Amino acid sequence: MNTRGDERGRPIPLAVRVGESFRVCELNGFDVRTWIEQDLCDMIILGSGVMDIEVEAFKQLAAKHGMPVYPCLYGWPSKYIPIPAELATGLALNYWAQGADGIYLFNWYPHNKKSTKFSRPYMTGLMNQMVDPEALRASQKHMMFPADRGRPQPCYQYNWLHCVLPEAMPVDKPLRATIRTFEQFPADVGLTLQLQVENLQAHDEVAVHLNGRPVAGWQRDGNDRLRAAMAPELIQQG
After folding, report:
1. Are residues 34 and 114 in the same domain?
2. Residues 154 and 124 sit within 8 Å (Cβ to Cβ)
3. Does one domain contain both 116 and 199?
4. Are residues 127 and 34 in the same domain?
5. Residue 16 shares a structural domain with residue 87
6. pLDDT tens profile 101-147
7. Does the pTM of the predicted model rise above 0.85?
8. Which residue range(s) make up the domain with 35?
């Protein structure tokens, strides 16, 4: 590619799209550390459907070689079709906070005149705002930070290692799930924690702790959804 670039008079960069963590890459047989250290590629794209991406780990190594890192903002393999604007906002802010050099979009067709499960009118404006975290915060009044969900599939058998959802609700021990947010929320912001519990019955009781502190005041929000307001001090950055 360097030879052809010299012949054409302009460089032809090589991008590679790999898993969401070095561990996933190793299990899939991709020696990405060596690719970076030996300058065998020009840019790294992270993730294929998964939302919980370890941007910072790749950035620390790639930055030494002047190699940009782009997390993939996707969403629908984690059951968000199409990805809502508030979720895209939360994911983009998380990636920027970890040092991303940009955002790579997959299965976004904002200029498609035909409405499909991947194309929505709001995506066009959102793309313009996504390049600037401050513009994104100012323009999007709602943000969503989910626990990633999904399971390794035959074609991605080592991906989604951070996911624990969906999972059967145990009765004798807690079920743990990680929700990552790198935002610092002001004291006057409204925060809501939501749970989706399939087959939730009227007499069922669900006790929730967030970062070791109980969350009270749960209200039903539809058949299988619970919602509770919470204070910003319950959130630990990251």
Report:
1. yes
2. no
3. no
4. yes
5. yes
6. 999 998 887 777 776 777 777 888 888 898 999 999 999 889 999 99
7. yes
8. 2-139
